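User: Please predict the structure of the protein below. I'd like the answer in structure-token form so I can feed it into my own downstream comparison script.

Assistant: Understood. Taking the following sequence of 180 residues as input:
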Amino acid sequence: MSAGFTLTHPSAKPLRAAALKYPETTEDFPWGHPAYKIAGKKAFLFLGAYEEGALSVSMKLPYRSEEALKMKGAKPTDYGLGRSGWVTFTYGPKAKAPMAKLIDYLDESWRVVAPKKLSAAFAPPESHSSLACGGGGERSEPEGASAAPPPQSSRISRADSSPASGGAGKSRRGRRRSMT
């Protein structure tokens, strides 16, 4: 942790420890608060300390942001990040954060930011299941399963738009492709 910065909320340490278990994760302090990044580049978790021990937790949750926003203390992250699925949870100094849910969301946040090959090669750390289940419990999902599968894409693939497949035969920019 950075000199002079202390997260005193009891939920901060387990979240920090869980984030640092993911491969290529680095801890940075870009605005005086901890940010957890993949290879020092793309952030997937921000922690903040406020008002005598209060805690804020921000994560990228594009697949479950609507679900997350129904939780007490949740709101879209400021600075326009909420439009990209970022959600901020705020807990008072004595409030008990729902660790199982936050650890689950942490996995989604890391996986959507991580390069696809890195994400696919990494199963959630075993200690995450212990934290999420309140200690020592078994994980309910099969090993290697993603916390939230991405929704089916509504995009049409290039193969689907080719003349041979009955598609319109147009390129991405809408112009007709030449058949020569």
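That's the full token string. The domain at 12-135 is CATH 3.90.1150.30 (Aspartate Aminotransferase, domain 1).
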